[in-house]
Each structure stands twice: as C-alpha cells, then as structure tokens.
Amino acid sequence: MAIVPSKKMIAICEYGGDFETHDDGTMTYVGGEAYAVDLDENMQLSGFKQEIAETIDLTVDAMIIKYFLPGNKKNLITVSKDKDFQRMVNYYKEADQVEVFIMKEAPPGKNTKKKQPARRPQKATPNVETAAIVQSAPVPAITNVVALNDQHVGVETTNEITPAAVPISSNPFPMVVADNDERLAARQWENLITGVGQRFHSLAEFREALRKYSIAHAFNFVYKKNENQRVTVKCKAEGCPWRIHASKLSTTQLVCIKTMRPVHTCQEVTSKAPFRAKRSWVGNLIKEKVKESPKIKPKDIAIELKRDYGIDLNYSQARRAKEYAREQLLGSYKDAYSELPFFCEKIMDTNPGSLASFSTKEDSSFHRLFVCFHASISGFLQGCRPLLFLDGTPLNSRYQGMLLTATAADGDDGAFPVAFAVVDEENADNWHWFITQLKPMVYPTGSPGQITFVADFQKGIRESLREIFGGECYHAYCLGYLAEKLNKDLTGHFSHDARRLMVEDLYAAAHAPKLEAFEKCTEDIKAISGEAYNWVIRSEPDHWANAFFGGLRYNHMTSNFGNHFYSWVSEANELPITQMIDELRGKMMQLIYTRRVESSQWMSRLTPTMEEKLKNEIIKARSVQMLRSHGSKFEVRYGEMIDIVDIENWDCSCKGWLLTGLPCCHAIAVLDSYGRSPYDHCSRYFHVEMYHLTYADSIHPIPNVERLVDSEAEDGVVLVTPPPTMRTPGRTKIRKIAPGRIGPSDFLKRQLQCGKCKGLGHNKRSCKEINDQLAAIGQ
C-alpha cells in the first residue's frame, strides 16, 4: 500500500522526453528521466520551481510548468502564477500523485514565436525539453499472503542499477486485451503499481502487489534480481521493454520504486496464471468464498477463478486450494466455540426478551445451545395456532451434531420458526433439555387451553412431553416416523408392493375422521399381514388417528413442517457455529420482514390459502340438501353421504369443521340458510388480523463478535472448546429419504427379492438357503 503523508502528494518529475499525439487527439509523454518531489498544499509556485531546479539542470526563470486537467489528455494548462499553481493542487488533492509537465523556454530571437506544447513528435522544437509527473488512483491495501513465484534467484550479477528513461503512458498496455466480460475481480489490482516514487512497507508487500498487478494485466514476469534489499523484474516476453526496479530507502524499511518502464510491446496476452499456482496463495484467495459456500465444488472454484481473475487451474489444483482454505478456516471453527458466551450475550442484548443459553460438559467442551428470539415467541403467542412441530435434522459440519427445531404454523399454513437448538447428538437427554427450555417460552404460566405437539414418539420425546407438560398438551405422533417404524418392525418377508400398500392403508387410517372408516383401513392391513394389523392396534391410535385424537392439529400429520429450517441448515451447516446461528437468524429476520410486507397488501378477510379453501367449500355447498332436525341441529345430504350439523357448537359429523378449522360445505349450507357469513365461523387464527400479529415484531441484527478471547478465561467466563466428535474423512452418506419422511408416494426403493426363498435383499445366486443345500449335496 502506497504511503501518502498527510496533506502531501508525490511529484514524479521526468526530464528530457517528448509528447506523442494519437489519432483521437490524446497525448502520451515518452522518454526522459524521472525525479520525485514532495508537493505540499501550502507550497508556493516559486518554492516548487526551486525544488525542481535543485534536482535537474534547469533555472527557475527558464522553467515552464503545464498540466492536464483530470480526465483530459488533449489540452495542457499553463501554470504561471501562485493562483494557477494552487488551482492545480486543488484539482488533485484527493490523489496520491499529480501529473504536470515542465518545459524549458527557448532563448529569444528575432523571429521567435511564442512556444506551445508539442502535439506531435515531428513538430517538437529541438530546444524544448519536458518532464512528467504521474497521477494515480489510490492504491488498494495489500494483504500478507504466501509468495507464488519461486524464481527468486538473481540472473544478473551486477549490483548497479543504471538510470534509464522511464516512458510513462496513459495506457501502458497497448496490446491485445482480454474480453471485457472476464477478469472483473482482477481489475481491482490494475493500479497496485502506479510508477516511480510509489512506496511500500516491505519488499514482500511489493512482490505481492507485483504478482496481483501482473494478473490484472495478464502478463508474465521474471526476477532479474530478488534480494533482501532490492528487486528487479522484467517482462518474460522476449524483447518486451517492460521493467521495474524497487529497493529499500536508506535508514528505513520502506521500499520505493526507483525506475519503471511501463510500456509493453508484447502482443500475445494469455489468460493463464502468470505464476506457478501454489495452493497456499490460491487457498488464501478463495478462503472467503469457501467460508461463505462451504459446499462449493473444485470445478466451480476453477470456473470462478478463470472468470474473475483469468487464472487457469485444473481440478486437482482447485481441490488442493480448497483443502488449504478449509485448513485455514479450522482456526475460526475452534474460535467460534470460545466466542459462544459473548455471542449469546449479544443475541439477548440486541433482541430483548430473547433467550440464548448453552451448556458444556465437564471438560468444558461444547454440549448444547438453545436459541429463541422474542419476535418468534410473541408471534407464536399472539397469532399462531397452539400447535408446534418438533423435529431434528443432522448437521454436516466439521463437528457433526444435530439441530433440534420447534416450528409453528401461521394463519396461511406457512412454517413459522419458534426455537432451535444445536446439540451434540439426538438422544433422550437432549430432547428433555430442549423441551424444558421451550416450555416457559411457548406456554407461560397461566396460559389457557392446551397445546398440541406433532413429533416423533421415540428418542425420549414421548416421555419428556408427558413429564414436562403433563396434561397441558396433546402429543400427535408423526405419521412419517410411524410408517418408518412399522416398516422396520415387520419381520415377515413382504414384497415392495405389499409394504407400500400397508403404508397407504396406515395413512388412510390416520386421516379417517370416523371409526367406521378407520376400522375398514385396518382390516385392509389385516388382509395383507396379521402381524402388521396387530402392530397398528398396539401403536396407540389415540395419538395419531383422527378418529380418536383429542387435540387440534388442523390436518397436519407429520412433524417435518419446518422445511425452511432444513433448507437453511443445508446451506449453512458447514459454517462455524456462531456464523451458522447468525445465518439462521438472518434467514428468520428476512422471512418475518418479507411476510409482513406481503400481507400488508392482502384485501381479503382470511389469508390467501384459507380464503381459497373456504371458497371451494362454498361452491360445494350449493349442492347440499338440508333438513332441520332439532334446535340448532340439521340433517344435510351431499351426494350419498348424510351428516349432522350442530351450528351452535361449530360441529359436523363429517369432522371437517373440527379437523381443519374451516366450515365444511355442510355447515356453510346451514349458515347460509340462517343468513350468517361463513367467515364469522372460521378459526380466528386464519384471519388476516391474526397473521399481522404473528409478524408484528422484528428480529434485530447482531453485531460481529469482535472481542478476542484470551488463552486464559476471565473470571466467571467459561472457555468453551469444540466437541470431541469430528466428522470422519471421506464422503458423507446421505439418505435419499430423511428419517420420518416416509410416505406412500416415496416409500422405499424397490428391494431385491429372492425368487427361491422370497426373502428381500438378495437373489437366487446369493441366497444362503440354496448355497447351504448345494454344500450339503457336495458333501
């Protein structure tokens, strides 16, 4: 990074060159000798001329100063007095360097005309000499990275650097350039090298700037000298005059560019990397990309580097670079756990009313983390149905673990994240802890009514809900996990079609609203397998069958309702734990904001999903025949079905009103005869007003954790270390059907069935029974 003194600029003077005028009228200064002069805002014109006169062989009286206006390379402006000089300084006061031209006035003669700046070389007056000072854009900061080019052996043996004319061009690369659509990211490096007088903190910083500069301009270079005091570099193309020399300033560690020939004459521009690609350098270049997208493939890395920087890597090089980047990120993974205490504090400070707590094991290693934002709790208590879905999904992170989630359903049947936890594994103890943390948030003291949970019945969830909530909740068994358990527990040899039919009948039995329909479905299962029938009867149907279940789950039969969580986690689960939590927080924050804005445009009384469902029932109600029975009860007929509607108790024998929260077609026909609106008899949770309450509060951003954790913990602060479990090497096995997701349509991959013994998982050739018989015959 170039060092610019406060309120000063560097004036780089070149003397003895000429101007070349191009077809478009722009001028380029070529040749001459270069000198650097400090330029102060408070300096006067006379003082500036004196500084130059002491440097070059030119008197103050014979000196003419001219300069270009910013962005104008066609017209030269003359500096003849202090006001002109100050105006020039003000034009370029934001730049590190300023471009001016110094001319030597010719001796007066009889027919001498007033001299103008030379526009073309052939018209230049022989006794006019010029000097240039280069303006440059501010130089970007240069990070410390591993060196790329191993060619550190000096080729030339002389220790003298011969001063040479340094041609400065407004376009120092008049050669074939790459496609403008490519190498966009490398353009930030185009001005890392600006010319004579530029300073750096060290030679390592200069070498790094040089490498990036060569990538930006797509040329290769070689070291002519590469010592601890000086560096000389030339373009690798034979005959190309491009050259640069930099050395340390005496009595300092600063490095200054002493000479530079910035013009290239080589015409072949390659998009390949101008260095032997080292995985360390490329790894540092892509580290942030790997951090943001941990699942990025080496092929995609190579494509992006080619597109953004013009660097060509093969698959193996890209893979090794990604491995290096992940190794460097390992430290951030470990540091993230030590930052947990401060991170939890920031969550609760920036989001008052939220809860973020964690626990460790005896060895201070991470155990589990619970997070629940106030906006989620207020949204659930004010606008959501008393219905929660508990589920877990594995984390494919370096330290593995599980994400436990509690998700609600908003008035439009959208998933509303309420709380989540990161635990080391999914077991009864962690589920008990999660439900314990959850209860005071979702069921505060004095809450009326009961809450319904849709969740697995294994891994201690059933026992934990009974112990922690007792009679204050209903537990609806997740139908997906139930089907999975049925398939796993069957010991008989059943074909794929037989198992699929039994799962279909199980789902039909669960959805059946009446006892008769439930019994019919179970009899169908019995016709296939008595073992499966007995299993279904013993599986506590009062916890999963509509015909018996006492709670309200609004026709939601499985616990995998939090699809948002699963998709978010798949994108962020390889991030360090604090970044992963913050990524989930950001997703939740955006979800709440987006739905709040979208719902502000709704003009209906019900949410769009519920409005459509109700309209479908209204259409069907036109075909319902109605007979009054007694009081508020009516007999209604729809097709061949006869049902009883109790309008005062909001009940219909078809159970549709109770199961969905919306009036069924039978009830709508009766309400219409009374002149009542069906909208007034929908569950209040489906009204737009309740939806607005759900998304009324916001989740606030969390500042980055900037506090560094010392190796020794402060008093009262737990120094959390990563969990001992780490992901094993190799590719992670991914189930195509996640636990608890088995349904009739995506039940199981067809299994191999033996044509001899009818067993599953093998064929005749590998059948153990046949092999045993053949072995007996052979004996």
From TrEMBL:
<keyword id="KW-0862">Zinc</keyword>
<dbReference type="Pfam" id="PF26130">
    <property type="entry name" value="PB1-like"/>
</dbReference>
<dbReference type="InterPro" id="IPR058594">
    <property type="entry name" value="PB1-like_dom_pln"/>
</dbReference>
<dbReference type="GO" id="GO:0008270">
    <property type="term" value="F:zinc ion binding"/>
</dbReference>
<dbReference type="InterPro" id="IPR000270">
    <property type="entry name" value="PB1_dom"/>
</dbReference>
<dbReference type="Pfam" id="PF04434">
    <property type="entry name" value="SWIM"/>
</dbReference>
<dbReference type="InterPro" id="IPR004332">
    <property type="entry name" value="Transposase_MuDR"/>
</dbReference>
<dbReference type="InterPro" id="IPR006564">
    <property type="entry name" value="Znf_PMZ"/>
</dbReference>
<keyword id="KW-0863">Zinc-finger</keyword>
<dbReference type="InterPro" id="IPR018289">
    <property type="entry name" value="MULE_transposase_dom"/>
</dbReference>
<feature type="region of interest" description="Disordered">
    <location>
        <begin position="105"/>
        <end position="127"/>
    </location>
</feature>
<dbReference type="Pfam" id="PF10551">
    <property type="entry name" value="MULE"/>
</dbReference>
<feature type="domain" description="SWIM-type">
    <location>
        <begin position="634"/>
        <end position="675"/>
    </location>
</feature>
<feature type="compositionally biased region" description="Basic residues">
    <location>
        <begin position="111"/>
        <end position="122"/>
    </location>
</feature>
<keyword id="KW-0479">Metal-binding</keyword>
<dbReference type="InterPro" id="IPR007527">
    <property type="entry name" value="Znf_SWIM"/>
</dbReference>
<protein>
    <recommendedName>
        <fullName>SWIM-type domain-containing protein</fullName>
    </recommendedName>
</protein>
<dbReference type="Pfam" id="PF03108">
    <property type="entry name" value="DBD_Tnp_Mut"/>
</dbReference>
